[in-house]
Description:
Helices cover about 60% and strands about 5% of the residues. The chain is mainly alpha-helical. Helix 1 packs antiparallel against helix 6 (about 140-165), helix 2 packs across helix 3 (about 75-100) and helix 7 packs across helix 8. The protein is globular.
Amino acid sequence: MKNLIKNPLFWITVILIVFVVVTVFIHDEEAFVGEEDVVDENIAIRINETTYTIDAFNNMLNGVNQELQMQGVEETKEELKDRTIEAMTQEALLIEYATDKGIEVTQEEIDEQFEQAMMMSGVENEEEFLSQIEMQQGIEGRDAIDDILKSDITINKLIELYEEEVEVTDEELQQTYDQYVQQMEQFEGVEGMEQEILSYEDAEGEMVDSLVQEKIYTLIISKIEEMEEDADIEIFIEDEDLELEEVSMPDMPQIDPEEMEIEVEDVE
Length: 268
C-alpha cells in the first residue's frame, strides 16, 4: 500500500466518511450484521466480533474510491481492496473502542440530531425529508438515517472524551502562530490574496481548537493502530467478488465564451 494509507489525516478523513458518508452505503439490514446471522459465503471480512458482507465491502470500496478520486488519486482495484480492508478495520475497531470506553447513544439524542438535520434542510415534515434524502443520497428509510446519526454522535462523544485529556502548551501555540504568520507573509504583494495578519491574542482561540483537534485525532489513530496489532482479522472476499463502479464527478458549469466580456489592456 502507498504511504498515503499511513497518513493520519487521510485516515481521519476516511473514518469520518465511514461514519457520516460511507456508512450511507453500508447501513442496511443485511450489510452489517452479527457473526451468527451471516451465511459464510456472504462474509467479506471479520474483525474481532464485527462482520461485514460482500455487499457492504463493495459499497465501502466504491466510497473510498470516490473520496480518493476527489483528491486526485487513481488506484487499481487491488490497491482499493487493501484500502477498504484497512478502512473497515479502522471503523470496526473505532466502534469497539468507543464501546469499551462506555460511550452510549440514546434514541433521544438521535431524534434530536434528526430534527436538526430536517430543520437545516428546509423541509417541513419527516416524510418529505426522508424522500429528499433518498433521492439525493440513496439512503432509504428512517432506520438507515438513525444508524448514520448514531455513528456520528458516537465519534463526537469520543472526541469530547479526549478533550478532557488533551493539553496545549504555550510553546506549541507560539510555534503554530509563527507558522501562521510565515504563511500569511507569503501572500504579501499578491493581488487578491492579501489578508490582515491576526494578532496572537485574536488567533489564540482558533489555534487552541485546532491543536486540540489535531492531538485528539493523533491519539485516536494511535489507539486504533495499537488495537489493530492484536485484532483477529479474517478476510474472505475474493478479487472476483469486487464490484468497482465508475465514479461520476459533479459537472462543472459550462460558460459560453461569447457571453463573456473581457477587457484587454494594451501593454507597451
